[in-house]
Amino acid sequence: MNKQYEITFLTKEDLKEKPVSKEIEALDGKIISTSTLGQKQLSYKIQKEKEAYFTTVVLEIDPEKIIELNRKLNLKDEILRHLIVIFKKKETSTKITKKEELPTEEKPKPEEEKKITEIEKEVETEKAKKEIKTPKKVQIPAVKPKKVEKPEIELGEEERLKALDEKLDELLKE
Fold first, then answer.
1. Which ranges of the chain would DSSP assign to H, the alpha helix?
2. C-alpha span between 51 and 43 (Å, rounded)
3. 43 phi and psi, to 5 degrees?
4. Is 8 exposed, middle or buried (0-12, 13-18, 19+ CB in 10 A)?
5. Domain ranges in the chain?
6. Distances (CA, A) of 113 to 13, 86, 136
7. pLDDT truncated to tens, each residue of the chain (174 aa)?
């Protein structure tokens, strides 16, 4: 059973998918699509190269042969770097539409209309709950620090400690 893989590789020259396609065909793989991003500047040098051509190939191959393909690509001189990942198709999301947005040909059945209106009501109640839960900003008045008066006369060590004790007692009483 074949799986789909995506190979992104960097080359010195614009070779498209040539270096990879030969190896894929040799391993009984099949190329599904290719895309070229063009020449880009590298964030750091790779094999003394500052720029490289980026190419992405989506292929289908037997999972047991992917290791051999990886080994063969490592040995190719024209490929600076490569990365092989399992290819996953992008899923399209389904969108719930209001009954006014539906085409005139496809009118919903009465049961479906009830379901749509129920879902719309649930969405509205969820929005209302979120609005209620959001906390409001409360402003806290700023506390102004009290100014400490400095004595004009320089005190001795004992006098200074006594003054500090008095201030401490005064603060503790408040």
1. 18-26, 66-75, 110-133, 157-173
2. 9
3. -75, -25
4. middle
5. 3-84
6. 59, 41, 37
7. 788 999 999 998 888 788 788 889 999 999 999 998 889 999 999 889 899 999 999 999 998 999 999 999 999 888 899 999 998 876 555 555 544 454 555 555 666 666 677 777 777 777 666 655 555 566 666 666 666 665 555 557 888 888 888 888 888 887
Other beta carbons within 10 angstroms of residue 1's beta carbon come to: 4
Give the Cα separation of 55 and 36 in Å (integer): 4
Q: Answer yes or no: are the C-beta atoms of 67 and 7 closer than 8 Å.
A: no
Residue recorded with tokens 């490929």: 79
Provide DSSP, 73-112. HHH-SSEEEEEEEE--PPPPPP----TTTS-SS-PPPHHH
What pLDDT is recorded for position 53?
92
User: Which CATH code fits 3-84?
Assistant: 3.30.70.60
DSSP three-state, residue 156: coil
Residue 13 DSSP label: S
Instruction: Give the number of residues written for the chain.
Output: 174
Asked if 73 contacts 9 with a C-beta cutoff of 8 angstroms, the reply is yes
- Phi and psi at 119, nearest 5°, equal -65, -40
